[in-house]
Structures are given as C-alpha cells and as structure tokens.
Fold these 4 entries.
Entry 1:
Amino acid sequence: MRANLLFILIVLPSFVWGADRDALKKPVEFFAEEITLSVDDSSATIEGVYRFRNRTSKQGEYPVVFPFHVDSASTYPDLIEAATLGPNARPIQVRRNEDRGAAILRVPLMPDTITSWRLRYKQRISGRSARYILTSTQAWGQPLDEATYCIIVPAEFENVKVWPEQDSMAFVGDKVEYWAHEKSFMPDKDMLVTWTLK
C-alpha cells in the first residue's frame, strides 16, 4: 500500500467480530460499487454506492478508512457525507483526518445481510484532471462482482479521456456522461478523467 494512502477502501483489521467468525475466511465481502464522478473547471464531486455482504450471524459496525486523492491540484474535500441506504437508512458518522488525507467511518452491518451505503464528497481542483482511487480493491483479495462508473463533464470540455473506458456515452442537457459497466472487476488503475478547455 502506498504510504500516502491513495486508495479507496481499506478495512481496518482491528475490528473484532468475536472469537467465532462463523468459520468463514472472509466474514465481510465488498462485492459491488457504483461511482459517479462529476467535474467542472474548479471542483470534483464524487458519489459512491457500496455493497457489503455480512456472511456472519453477528451484528456490528465495520470500520473503514476512506482516503481521498489529495495533491497539489486536488484539495482535501470540503464536504463529506455518508449514510446507509434502504428502508432503515441512517447517517454514518464521518471522522475527518486531514493529516492522513482520509476519513474514518463505521458502517453498520446486520447479520447475514447485504448493506448498501453511500458516500458523497466534493473537493476543489485546479488542474485539468480529476481522479478517484480504485486500485485498493486489490486489498480485498477478490474482484468486484459488478461495478458501474459514470463520469460527467460539461459539454464544452474538449479532448476528454476517461478510465475506465466508456462502453456508452450520452448528452444530457449541457453535460456529457461516460458510462462503463464491469463484471468480475479487479482494477489495476484509478478512475480518471482529463480534458482541455477551448
């Protein structure tokens, strides 16, 4: 792992589900995500939906360190929000850690259940690119069953290049959306958009 913590999700090993882990090698699985990265010439807004599968009979909070891409052209996010989704949706407390360029969350998991949760953040950018870290999926030791990525840019942006490479695109009002759908996906690069201006 890179020392500057440029990865998306790393589960803290200190979380204790108890001595009985239901004889499962991986009691919690991160198996799907949907990421939308929307940019203009001065900011990037990211909204992610993540799906965790609790394969145990235990209820608890799963601690997650969520780092952000922070460099000379991308600031630590001004806004960070998180919540579970579904009928019993509730906010997830976010603890900011600007020194590490990360946030710390505790995602509530019910026994033998899939939990969907959302995180949204916005950061200022000063260059002609925006990045969202995908490669830390490798830390989970297994590919995502499915993943959907959407990059949204103003229609006036030129020479737009995206990764993951789009399998479709759409013009929506004054925006262009680039969509990529992946199966059994283990990313070896980060989500990235670059552009030039007229």
Entry 2:
Amino acid sequence: MKNIRIPELLVVAMVVVLLNSVFYLTLKSYYGRKFSEENKEKMIVSTSVYKEITDDPCKWSVIGDPDAKDSYIKLNIFCDDGKSLNTLDLRAIKKTTIADVLHEFSRMQGIDNLIINEAGEIVSWGKYTNSENKSWSCKIDIFKVNLNDEAVPKSNIDCVFENNL
C-alpha cells in the first residue's frame, strides 16, 4: 500500500470543507428566498381545501395543553347539542381581545359567521343565532364579560348558548 502523505490529506480535507460550505450556503440562500414571512402567514391563515367547513362551534375541540407557560386561554363552549373544551396559545393570536380569541378559534374550526356587536356580545355564531328565547352569554368565572376586553392569560372563558331568563 502506498502511504498517503500529510499534504495530500490536507488538500482532500480542504476540498471537502469547501464543498460542504458551498452546499450549506446554497441551501441557506435557496430556503431563505423560498420561505418568506408572507408565505408563512399565508400557510398558517388560509383554509385548506380539504378542511371540513362547519357551522357548529361545538363540533370539534382544540385539545391538550400547549407549552405556553402562562400565555394561554381555556375556552369552553356549550351549545344545545354538545360542548367544546379548548386551550388556545395567546402567542399565536396577533390581537388579544376576547373577541379576537373567538375569531381565531372560529377560523381554526372553519366557522365563517361569528358576529359580535359593538357592545361586545355574540349575536350569531355558526348555526346558533340569538332569539327571544335563547342567546349567547360569555363569562370568566361567574362574571359576564365584554368580548372587546383584553383576554387575560390563564383565564377560563365559558360561552354558553342558553335560555333567556
């Protein structure tokens, strides 16, 4: 066997390092141009063509506790024919009023007709519309809330479609 001399081994090592550097910089440049913040936002916000659209806010739940430390909201929705218990990470919601949390939840669920009036009350949500007999009521603990108020991290929001008293 022929002995490989140190200078030849050094040249081979330098060529390998150079090729790896060129490969790394090429990929970094390519993916830096391909994945912009605009494309990321479009992927996150747009609705998939395969997503089932619903008109029932109680049909699905966003389950599990996110790794959000102290920046989450528990959103519990009670309808005539079911309930939906959800945990949402506030870091993923750009604006943080309670109405914004409900709009983001509706967007995730594929519900496109959440209507909140200027007084901060739900008028209609999916197939549930306020009437003389029934209406939406949202509370934190036992206190009724205005949906235009800021969402307080680690709070439990209960929205109930219930009989009017």
Entry 3:
Amino acid sequence: MTAPPLAYDAERTDNGGITNQGGSMSDKDSPKPDAERVVERLTALMEADSPERRAERKRVGARCGHIKRKLKEGQPLEGGLLEFAVETVGGNKALAEKLRTGQQLDGYELHLMLDMYLLHARLGA
C-alpha cells in the first residue's frame, strides 16, 4: 500500500525529507525564527510612532481614566466623556442606554465597562 499524495505537490527524497517541486526557497523567502520576527515587528511599531499618534494615545488614555474614576464613584458621565463611553461600548445597547440616562451600573456591567471596553479602547489607541 502506498501513501496518498501530499496536498501541496511535494515529493519525498531518499533521506526522508520533503522537497518542493516548484523550486527551492531563497533566503529572503525562507521562514524566519520567531525572535527575529518579533524584533522586526517591534522595530516597525516604534518607527511608526509619531508625535500625533503619541498625543492621541495620551488623550484616549486620559479619557478612559476619567470615565473609570467617575463610574467607580457612581457619578454620571456628561459631554465628551459620555459620547466617548457610548462609542466605546459599541453594540451593547443596554449598557449604552444606562450610560446615557446616568443610571448606576451593576457589578457585572461595571466590570465589562472597566475591564473590557475601556481596556480595549486604550490598547487600540
């Protein structure tokens, strides 16, 4: 009984290794070690960090902090903070409505707002 053909059109060599019939990969196309990929990604991220982007991240972080403080103290959100919070919760209509009306959030809703929505907004900035 013979083995079924490989899905990616390769053949086995005498030493048990697999070679691609389409040709060999150059050094440029060969897979890189994980550490090298991570270093390249971090370098690209750091190079893309402009003063405008830093200022935007700082603004979003400050807004998230203000919202977190007000919600923990049970204060209603107003103005720009309310708009940002409603935009942050996205499709959660019940939570958005509670924020708009100034109602107290229960423990689970507060957890969602602080530990999920605001954290996601801060990390996404």
Entry 4:
Amino acid sequence: MRALCMVLVLLFSHACARAPEAEPSELRVEHERAGAWVDKLRAAHANADTATTAEARADALHQLRTLAAQAAPASVAADDAASMRRDLYGRAARLALTLGRAPDARELIERGLSLEGRDPFHTQLLVLAVETHRALGDEAAAREAERAARAALTDR
C-alpha cells in the first residue's frame, strides 16, 4: 500500500507538471481530471482492502476491473498510466483467485501483461500467473510463468 501511495503521488505530480503550453483553465481541468482519476484508484484499492465477504470482494473485483480497462486522463504520462493499470489488473486478478475464479484471473493477468512497459507491477502479474496456472491445473504454463517471473526479478 505504501508503494501504491508513492506511485500515486508521483503520478499526480507528474500530471500536474504537464502541458505548459495550455491555457490556465485547460490546465486546471486536466489537473482535476488527473486528480479525480487518482481518487478513483485510491477508492478502489481501499474498497478491496476492506472487502471481507465474497459479495464485497466480487464488487471490489468489478470496480478494479472496470478502472483497469479505462484509459487514464490525457495529462497522465503513458508510462504512469500503464503502471497504475497493471497494478489494478494485478489486484483484480488476486481477488478473482480468492473468489475461485482462476479463468477470470488469467484473463486479467493477460490484459495487464499486454500493456507497454516493465515495472514491479509487471513482475507481480508474472508471479500471479504462476499461481493462476496452478489453480487451472496447467503445470507446464505455471513453470513457464515462473521462469518469466524469475527472469524479471533478476533483470533489475
């Protein structure tokens, strides 16, 4: 959660520093959009943190999945947006596994891995892929995902 907060702060500050050629009112609107997006991300993570029942987890999963599928505001740097979306996909995949919905988890992981860039959230998705493939009974895919996760961890 601490890493998420740091990333959100960096994301928001980066969004606020963009588009210097825009008019002040346009900048304000873009800042507000970026801030509202960050607030939605924060609320979705908080909702997932407090979900204790299967119904609450399913609601949190839906909220995370919906946000992950949406594009970030234009003022958010593409790399930052991809990182935050990968984090959302990973969190949603973890909830799907918790709910016994491994096929959904696999789909979420694939979507997150399809986004451009490599960061700790990408590695997290690879690690989740191992668990997901095992839950699906596909040991060969689990071993392949484990090799990819190890490679991602040693590439840093």
